[in-house]
Each structure stands twice: as C-alpha cells, then as structure tokens.
Amino acid sequence: MQFDDDADLDTSEVRDVRGSRIPGGRATVGGGAVGLIALLLGLFFGIGPDQLGLSSGGDQAAPSASSLDQVERSCRTGRDANSRDDCRAVAVVNSVQDYWDQELRRRGRTYDTAPTVLFSQRIGTACGTASSAVGPFYCPGDRRVYLDLGFFEELRTRFGATGGPFAQAYVIAHEYGHHVQDLLGVLGRSQDGLTGENSGSVRTELQADCYAGVWARHATTTPDESTGRPLITSLSAADVEDGLNAAAAVGDDRIQERFQGRVTPETWTHGSARQRQDWFREGYRTGDMARCDTFG
Known about the structure:
Blueprint: E1 2-3, E2 14-16, H1 32-43, E3 46-47, H2 70-74, H3 78-81, H4 85-106, E4 116-118, E5 122-125, E6 128-131, E7 137-139, E8 144-147, H5 151-157, H6 165-184, H7 200-218, E9 232-234, H8 237-249, H9 252-260, H10 273-286
Parallel strand pairs: 2-4, 3-7, 4-8
Antiparallel strand pairs: 1-9, 5-6, 7-8
C-alpha cells in the first residue's frame, strides 16, 4: 500500500493523546484466563468497552503537554504516511472518511466525521475507561475510534497475523464500518443479548468487515479533496491478503483455539475466521455496501 507522496494529510481527524494520564478509576475485567478470554472474545476488536462492563467512569484523557501533537508536527504529507505508523493511521483515516462521505452523499445521506484518538495504556471515553488490552474500538457514545498503535505488534506476535501496512488499514476501516452503522441506525442490532454464529453482535461485526472491504475496493479511486487525486496510489493483491490474514487472526474460533484450546461457537461475538474473511471479500469484490446485508 502506497500513498501519494505529495498529498496533504488532514491531522484534524486524529487526536493524539499518547502518554496522557487518565484521572479516576481504572478499567477492570475478570482475573486470570477466564477474564482474558472474556476480554478477547467480547471486544477484540469492535464496539466500546461498555459492552463488557469494563468501564469505571467516563473520564476523558488528561493530556501530558510533552506528549501532544506528535501527529500534527510529524504527519504532513503522504510521504510521511509511507514511513511512519502514526502518519499511516492518519492517511487511512483520511481515505476512509473521504470515501464514506462521498458514498453516503451519493445515496442521499449525510456523513458526520468521526475522529480517531491515538492513545497508550488507558483512555477515558463516553463508553467508559478502557485499557490498551481491549484492542481498537468504536465508541458510539462520543462517535470516536480509539486505537493504541501497539496493538498492531500484538496482532502479529500474539495472534499470528502476518502484519503489514494494509493489516493496519483493515483494522481502522473496520472501526469506521461501525461508525457508518451508527449513522445508518444499524449499530443497535448488536444489542440483542445473544451470542453465537447468528447473533446480532456477530452480524454487526461481519458487516463492519464487509464495509472495510467496500472501502478497500475504492481506496485507489476515491479522490482526495486537497489534490483531486486518490490519497492511496496502489493496493496490491499481497496487501489485500495481509488484510484477510488479519481478519482471520481475530476470528472467534482462532482466538478460542489459541487461548482456551477448544472452539465454542455458541459464545461467538465477532464471527469465525472464515466468516470474517468471506465478508471482507464480499465487500472488496463488489464494492457495494448494499451487498453487506449480514442481517438479511
């Protein structure tokens, strides 16, 4: 995946609070292996920590002055995105939001911009306080995406994904899929109180995977507002395979097998490795969000 070296990045869409201090209580989850499994299967990665009862208050981050504005200072152009992980995140956020803004307007809908918050260790959100352990998530309470960049190394070393720039892009695009669901009034379908292959939670996560694929299909043709040219200039078959590999790595069955030694489909909340790959492929193959009806 390559970005246009000369394109300007819009850092206003990303808030960098890495190194911030969080006042108030700390996020908690049940101890030991059971708590870890619950955490991984319940949220990794998806919608805000309130779903798991991980939150302990809703305090926002208290930024440390020395840690702020790393992104604003360093991430100016596509050339920066080609060399730095944090700048790549900015560029992907810009590309994803440009696409959904244009696509929803084409369909007679309005797209409201959602910022991504880069954090480390712990973060306060409208969905409660969460730790980096929960992975990337979207909080519908404040309509923000939360991301600790250290997650991508965890994805490779702990969960066996191959990694690569597009694996990162897939994760970010998945979270913005939840934002699109929120804007369209679909996100609430995840709250049906069920688990398993046919639950609202699984269908919601698979639709977000499909929306990520839809964006990927159009990533190299969506014009950037500042230049009129696509921000992403190339996306190879190998890049897409990295995205599919990341989708499989966070399938419920893969996580269950790795951490508890057995697969229990009745407890799934995000979908199997194959389901996640299949729905990403459907979005990428068709480029049509209408084909992402996982509820139908």
